[in-house]
């Protein structure tokens, strides 16, 4: 979730909560105001009543008053029915013949020498309609303010976070071994400006460290080749001596073998360094069927030496964009690995489809953690190690620089090395 969306959601939830909670509060406040106004209106009527009572001289006058004024009731005083405080009760409206809420106020007055209860009342129907109208207007205003707030907040937030998005875009497109255009403009927000400066300083230090490491790796690899070559040439001369004993010849052969492994290791390390530095072009059109068939043909003798069979059934051809020599190296490494670690007389399956290439070979389960399979020098060292521990690491790196996904599975007592040409996106 993007930061702008996250903050907008939080504002949305908070504002919605405030609006929902304010509606009943607003209704309660407005209703209380109207009830207080109604009570004051009834109190005013009650205040003026004694002036009318003075005009009543007989029971007929009282009856006429009762019939003419429909908003009050006159009954004999009964302490049990007298309520000194205003109250609301439902009554039938004579006009609509429906139950309605009425506000009542009772006063005790003496009429013609007898104590009476005069009940003043007024309908609350208009008050309720008015409250509903005001409430609808209030809700409309709140929603308008809410929508305006969201729009303004999102607009301002976009403008505020625009420099941050520029910095983020720069980091996403940044490549260590290529020339990158830094963000040189001065930002209006101090914190983002400081962040940009700190990121630029960090990248400068990283580029310096990377360049020094790259130079050291390349120089060390090249410098190591010379003494190895000299030692190998001296050993060749020593092997030509006629006075060498059998034990000395065996010892020299062993030294020569170790030097050869050291030379191969040095070449592979230099090759890995070039891969990591992306010193290759990826503009070749690679025919997967032709390339795989060539790799099988070139290495078939290796499998025949162990009485193994390479099966390549019903392949599907596709054309990929990449580096042909690197792709050749990838297939060669995986095929040699399958041949080396399969028992004699076994069958190795190579399954090629438009989306993937799978090498399947028999063999015992790994005696180390699967996560270390594609790591450098991290696998178990055997007494007679068949490689230098870099073949699968190089294969993984070649797959990555092509955008492929190289994975491993062990099912049904068989090793599966799977190359998916369309690497799934990382989220």
UniProtKB/TrEMBL annotation:
Gene3D superfamilies: 1.10.287.130, Histidine kinase-like ATPase, C-terminal domain
Recorded GO MF terms: kinase activity
The Histidine kinase domain, residue ranges: 219-427
Residues passing through the membrane, by range: 12-34, 130-152
Pfam families xrefs: HATPase_c, HisKA
Keyword NAD (UniProt): no
EC number annotated for this UniProt entry: 2.7.13.3
Alphabetical list of SMART domains matching this protein: HATPase_c, HisKA
Catalytic activity: ATP + protein L-histidine = ADP + protein N-phospho-L-histidine
Signal peptide: none
Keywords: Kinase, Membrane, Phosphoprotein, Transferase, Transmembrane, Transmembrane helix
UniProt-listed CDD domains: HisKA
Protein name (record): histidine kinase
Organism ancestry: Bacteria, Pseudomonadati, Bacteroidota, Sphingobacteriia, Sphingobacteriales
């Amino acid at each position: 979730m993007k930061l702008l969306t996250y903050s907008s959601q939080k504002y949305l939830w908070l504002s919605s909560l405030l609006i929902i909670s304010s509606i009943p509060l607003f209704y309660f406040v407005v209703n209380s105001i109207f009830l207080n106004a109604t009570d004051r209106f009834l109190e005013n009527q009650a205040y003026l009543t004694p002036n009318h009572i003075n005009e009543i001289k007989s029971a007929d006058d009282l009856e006429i008053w009762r019939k003419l004024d429909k908003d009050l009731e006159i009954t004999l005083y009964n302490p049990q029915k007298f309520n000194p405080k205003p109250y609301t009760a439902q009554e039938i409206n004579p006009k609509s013949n429906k139950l309605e809420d009425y506000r009542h106020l009772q006063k005790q007055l003496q009429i013609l020498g007898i104590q009476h209860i005069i009940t003043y009342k007024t309908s609350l129907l208009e008050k309720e309609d008015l409250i509903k109208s005001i409430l609808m207007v209030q809700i409309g205003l709140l929603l308008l303010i809410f929508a305006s707030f969201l729009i303004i907040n999102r607009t301002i937030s976009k403008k505020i976070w625009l420099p941050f998005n520029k910095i983020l875009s720069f980091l996403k497109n940044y490549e260590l071994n290529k020339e990158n255009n830094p963000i040189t403009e001065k930002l209006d927000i101090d914190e983002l400006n400081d962040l940009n400066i700190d990121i630029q300083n960090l990248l400068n230090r990283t580029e310096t460290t990377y360049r020094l490491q790259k130079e050291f790796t390349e120089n060390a690899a090249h410098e190591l080749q010379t003494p190895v070559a000299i030692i190998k040439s001296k050993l060749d001369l020593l092997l030509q001596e006629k006075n060498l004993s059998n034990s000395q010849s065996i010892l020299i052969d062993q030294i020569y073998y170790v030097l050869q492994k050291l030379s191969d290791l040095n070449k592979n390390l230099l090759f890995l360094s070039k891969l990591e530095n992306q010193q290759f072009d990826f503009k070749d059109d690679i025919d997967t069927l032709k390339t795989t068939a060539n790799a099988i043909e070139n290495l078939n003798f290796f499998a025949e030496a162990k009485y193994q069979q390479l099966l390549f059934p019903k392949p599907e051809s596709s054309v990929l964009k990449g580096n042909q020599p690197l792709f050749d190296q990838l297939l060669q490494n995986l095929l040699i690995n399958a041949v080396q670690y399969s028992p004699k007389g076994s069958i190795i399956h190579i399954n090629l489809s438009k989306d993937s290439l799978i090498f399947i070979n028999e063999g015992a389960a790994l005696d180390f953690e699967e996560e270390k399979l594609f790591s450098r020098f991290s696998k178990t060292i055997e007494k007679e190690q068949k490689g230098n521990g870099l073949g699968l690491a190089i294969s993984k790196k070649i797959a990555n620089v092509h955008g492929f996904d190289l994975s491993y599975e062990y099912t049904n007592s068989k090793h599966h090395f799977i190359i998916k040409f369309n690497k799934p996106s990382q989220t």
